[in-house]
C-alpha cells in the first residue's frame, strides 16, 4: 500500500463530496441496506428466543449477540488489510455474499443454534460491508469533510436499523415473530448485493491522491504497529477505541436486554418495537448534524458529552417504569450515541495517515464491535443473578466512566491538523 500511494492517480480523480456525489449517494443507500440487516433482529430475535424456543436464561438468549459481536470484531480487524490488498469493492461484495443466507436461516431455524450461526454470518456481513462503506466515503471526501461523510453514512445505516425495528415489531404483532418480519432482510440482502456488484467503483485511487498531497513521505507501517497505535500507543486512538468498545457494549446490552425488560412489564410487541426503533432512529437522524459539527467544533467535546448523555438515558431506563419514561430514555440514548459515533470515527481518521487509515479504522472497529459480545454476555450474567434493571444500571455506570477517560486522555485536534 505504501508503494501504491506514491504512484500517480488518474487525472480524473478528485477529492470532495460534490465531486463524488453520485458514488457517495450510492454508498449511503447501500449502507441503509446494511443497517436494515441488523434492524430485522433488534425487536424480534430476542423474543423468538424467549417466546418460541422457551429459553429461560437471559445469558443464553443474548448469546446470538455475542456470536455476532465477536465475529464482526474480527471481520473488522481484517477488513482494512483486505481492502488495501484486494480493493474496497471486492471486500464490500464479499460481505454481501456472506450475508445472503442470514434471513433464510432465521426464518427456517429449527433450534436456537441456527440463530447463533446466522448471527455469526451477519457479523461477517456487517464487519466487511459496513466497514467498506465508511472507508470508501472517507476516501472520497478527503480530510476536510470526514465528520460529514461519517455522519451521513451512519445516518443511513442506523435510521434503517430503527425503521426496520419498528416495522418488524408491527409485523410481529400482526403476523407473529416468524416468518413475515424477516422477509425484509431478504430484500435488503438482494438489493445490497446487486448494487455493490453492478454500480460501486473502487476508491483506492482517491487514497493515492490524498497521500501524494502530503509534503513528507511516511515510511511503511506494518499491521502490528497500526494495531499497537490504535490500541494503546497513541493516546487519541486509545481514547477512541475504549469509548467505541463501551458505546457498543451498551448497545449490545440494549439489543438483548431491553426487549426482555420491557416485555417483563407487559409491554406488547408493537410498543416494544417503537422503543427499539426510537433509539437507533434518533441516533441515525441526528448524525446528519453531529457529524458536520465535529468538523467545526472538534471531536472531543461531543464524544465526552455524548457518553455522559447515554449514561443518563440508561440510568433512566433502569430506574423508571412506564412507556413514556422509557421513550424519553430512548431519545436520550439516541442523542448521546449520535454525538459519539461519527465523532469517534472522524477522530480515528484524523489521527491516522492516509496510507494506514483503513487499517487504523479496522482496529478501532475491532475494539468497538467486540463491545457487542462483552456487553451482551456481561449484561446477561448480571441479569440472571441480580435482575434486568441491575444489568442496565451497571452498563450506565461504565458508560459514564468511559466518557471521563476520554475527557482526560484525548487531545483535541482541529480538522486542519488532521494528517
Automatic annotation (TrEMBL):
Taxonomic source organism: Sinorhizobium fredii (strain HH103)
Record flagged with keyword Cytoplasm: no
Domain Major facilitator superfamily (MFS) profile: 1-204, 236-419
Protein name: Major facilitator family transporter
TM stretches of this protein: 21-40, 60-79, 91-109, 115-136, 148-170, 182-200, 301-319, 325-345, 366-383, 389-410
Cellular component, GO annotation: plasma membrane
Keywords noted in UniProt: Cell membrane, Membrane, Plasmid, Transmembrane, Transmembrane helix, Transport
Location in the cell: Cell membrane
Amino acid at each position: 500500500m505504501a508503494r501504491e500511494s506514491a504512484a500517480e492517480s488518474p487525472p480524473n480523480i478528485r477529492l470532495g463530496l460534490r465531486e463524488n456525489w453520485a458514488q457517495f449517494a450510492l454508498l449511503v443507500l447501500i449502507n441503509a441496506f446494511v443497517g436494515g440487516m441488523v434492524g430485522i433482529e433488534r425487536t424480534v430475535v430476542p423474543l423468538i428466543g424467549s417466546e418460541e424456543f422457551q429459553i429461560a436464561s437471559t445469558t443464553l438468549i443474548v448469546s446470538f449477540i455475542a456470536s455476532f459481536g465477536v465475529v464482526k470484531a474480527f471481520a473488522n480487524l481484517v477488513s482494512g488489510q483486505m481492502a488495501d490488498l484486494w480493493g474496497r469493492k471486492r471486500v464490500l461484495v464479499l460481505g454481501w455474499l456472506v450475508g445472503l443466507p442470514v434471513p433464510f436461516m432465521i426464518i427456517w431455524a429449527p433450534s436456537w443454534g441456527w440463530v447463533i450461526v446466522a448471527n455469526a454470518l451477519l457479523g461477517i456481513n456487517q464487519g466487511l460491508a459496513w466497514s467498506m462503506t465508511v472507508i470508501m466515503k472517507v476516501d472520497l471526501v478527503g480530510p476536510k469533510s470526514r465528520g460529514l461523510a461519517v455522519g451521513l453514512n451512519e445516518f443511513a445505516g442506523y435510521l434503517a436499523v430503527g425503521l426496520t425495528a419498528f416495522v418488524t415489531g408491527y409485523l410481529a404483532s400482526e403476523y407473529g415473530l416468524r416468518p413475515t418480519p424477516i422477509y425484509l432482510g431478504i430484500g435488503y440482502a438482494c438489493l445490497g448485493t446487486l448494487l455493490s456488484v453492478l454500480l460501486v467503483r473502487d476508491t483506492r485511487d482517491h487514497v493515492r491522491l490524498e497521500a501524494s498531497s502530503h509534503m513528507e513521505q511516511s515510511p511503511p507501517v506494518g499491521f502490528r504497529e497500526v494495531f499497537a497505535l490504535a490500541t494503546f500507543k497513541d493516546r487519541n486512538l486509545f481514547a477512541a477505541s475504549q469509548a467505541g468498545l463501551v458505546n457498543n457494549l451498551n448497545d449490545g446490552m440494549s439489543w438483548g436486554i431491553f426487549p426482555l425488560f420491557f416485555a417483563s412489564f407487559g409491554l406488547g410487541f408493537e410498543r416494544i418495537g417503537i422503543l427499539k426503533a426510537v433509539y437507533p432512529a434518533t441516533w441515525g437522524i441526528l448524525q446528519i448534524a453531529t457529524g458536520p459539527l465535529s468538523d467545526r467544533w472538534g471531536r472531543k467535546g461531543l464524544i465526552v458529552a455524548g457518553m455522559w448523555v447515554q449514561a443518563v438515558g440508561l440510568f433512566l431506563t433502569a430506574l423508571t417504569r412506564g412507556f413514556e419514561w422509557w421513550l424519553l430514555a430512548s431519545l436520550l440514548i439516541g442523542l448521546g450515541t449520535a454525538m459519539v459515533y461519527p465523532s469517534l470515527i472522524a477522530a480515528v481518521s484524523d489521527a491516522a495517515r492516509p496510507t494506514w487509515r483503513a487499517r487504523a479504522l479496522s482496529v478501532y472497529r475491532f475494539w468497538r464491535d467486540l463491545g457487542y459480545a462483552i456487553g451482551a454476555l456481561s449484561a446477561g450474567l448480571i441479569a440472571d443473578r441480580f435482575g434486568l434493571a441491575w444489568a442496565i444500571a451497571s452498563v450506565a455506570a461504565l458508560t459514564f466512566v468511559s466518557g471521563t477517560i476520554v475527557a482526560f486522555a484525548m487531545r483535541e485536534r482541529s480538522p486542519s491538523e488532521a494528517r
